[in-house]
Amino acid sequence: MSVLNGYEPQVVFHYFEELNKIPRGTYNCQAVSDYCLKFAKDLGLDAKQDETLNVIVKKPGTVGYENAKPVILQGHLDMVCEKTPESTHDFEKDGIDMYVEDGFVKAKDTTLGADNGIAVAYIMALLAAKDIPHPPLEVLLTADEETGMSGAMGIDMTQFAGTNLINLDSEEEGIITAGCAGGVRGEYQIDIRREAYSGTTFKIKIHGLLGGHSGSDIHLQRGNAHKMMGRLLDFLRTDIDLRLVSVDGGSKDNVISTISEALVVFPENERTTLIEKVAKMKAIWLDEFMGDEPGLCVEALEVSERAFEPMTKESGDRVIDVMFGIPNGPMGFSRKLKGLTETSMNTGVFSTSTQQVTGKVLIRSSVESKIEEMKALVKTVVKGLTGATVNYHDQYPAWQFRPESELRDVLVKEYENLFGKTPEVSTIHAGLECGLFVGKNPALDCVSIGPEMFDVHSVNERLSIASTETTWKYLQSILKNLR
Predict the structure, then answer these.
(1) Could you report how far apart the first and last alpha carbons of the chain are, in Å?
(2) pTM of the model
(3) In angstroms, how far apart are the furthest CA atoms of the chain?
(4) Residues 6 or more apart in contact with residue 383 via CB below 8 angstroms
(5) CA 261, CA 264: separation in Å to the nearest integer?
(6) Own/partner long-range contacts of 279-287 (Cβ < 8 Å, ≥24 apart)
(7) Is the Cβ–Cβ distance between 33 and 143 less than 8 Å?
(8) In this structure, is the dihedral angle defined by the CA atoms of residues 396, 397, 401 and 406, taken in order, positive or negative?
């Protein structure tokens, strides 16, 4: 049964619902890429799939637009896969269980995939339409954007004749995005030693945090479960002979971590002290957050089994040191656009094996030199505290704001004509693929738009139904006036 039947724009929501039946997490894009390729070919359009699973489709202009400049429409196929600890959802096999509440499309206990499935749905609706005026369309649906942007990195931009590119990966109606931060991913492994140590084993778990997108939500100063765990473990070890067994949590470096779990061993006679200190730290956090993290849970429960012997005190202290000491959150704000985060760092993942603890981070900045500064800073901190080396990968450039843009001027004018007000033109701290496209073809004139979405990259992700319809009307108006 259709969940979104009866909601406008019906054609867009139909395709969005079809997409959400297909598991399409990052690095699991074969099925959704094949689906979109077949969809376009069944329409009789020129369509192909490249080696990185990007889908490229070309549709001629409608009557009167045959000789207009082509317009590139772009979105990405993959989604961030996050779920509540209680959820049994399998992102490798299950579609998204959607529902409607208070004017929003939501997902039951998982991310929704509106980032960026709604863009693909808009594009599919345009490809299938026979009554919407538009110039020649060149569609680019990229794979694996959320972790590494490998689709955008692998695309050959010489196959596109158009120089006007509309990216549909923004999340705020009424804002035309004209620039974004660049970024780089980092990973390090802390070597550890283990030894037998008798005592009481507790699992300490921090969860229930709001989380969110490590770019667009980083300025909200939401709790990062890993940083909080580092602070809690440091607080505990001042009075308790603590031995760390493991620390695990987070699945993506671009998600503000909502959960962190640590196994610790300590003398039985220090049980009361540990429980009291955990409760005290929770109270401190509730006071500091001032109601901004209403779901915060901090638990300390005895467990009977553990997979590993505890780390030596020296090894455990090194891990706690880096969790507590590594930078996290906003690191600087724009000097030109007040209130915009310029530079940030997110500690997204910690995982423990027999001999190593692995940490994953994501650095973002709209200033390339600041990315290099943060890379050096994180490297110095991690090496100084643990001796480990940080390996950086998947670096992507910032999308620099252009003072003059004919495409942007059209979007501003059409928004004013439709809605009677001037849209905001801005840049964002999150990463968009436009920077990579412009790097491959400097002649590109890019903009990014999209409907209202909230709390993307988290289980609270939701898509405004009204805004989806408004943006659909806006997109049609833009294309009608690009002759």
Answers:
(1) 40
(2) 0.83
(3) 83
(4) 389, 390
(5) 10
(6) 281/231, 281/232, 281/235, 285/223, 285/228
(7) yes
(8) negative
Q: Which two tokens stand for residue 156?
A: 């050959």
SS3 239: coil
Q: Which residues of 366-390 are buried (b: 16+ CB within 10 A; e: fewer)?
A: bbeebbebbbeebbebbeebbebeb
Contact 253, 215 (CB under 8 A): no
CA–CA distance, 58 with 12 (Å, rounded to integer): 19
pLDDT per position as a tens digit, 253-285: 999 999 999 999 999 999 999 999 999 999 999
305 is catalytic: no
pLDDT digits (tens, 9 = 90+) for 278-291: 999 999 999 999 99
Of 17, 78, 82, 293, the active-site residue reads 78
Which tokens in the block code for residue 28?
């699991």
Helix (H) or strand (E) holding 306: none
Q: What CA–CA distance (Å, rounded) separates 96 from 77?
A: 14
What's the half-sphere exposure (Cβ side, CA atoms, 13 Å) at 346? 33
Which residue of the set 115, 145, 172, 217 is catalytic? 145
DSSP string, 161-207: ---EEEE-----TTEEEEEE-EEEEEEEEEE--B----SEEEEEEEE
Query: What amino acid occupies position 65?
Result: Y
Specify whether 144 is catalytic: no
What size, in residues, is the chain?
483
Pairing of strands 46-49, 55-59: antiparallel
Contact indicator for 153, 318 with CB cutoff of 8 Å: no
Q: Is the dihedral of CA 222, 90, 451, 6 positive or negative?
A: negative
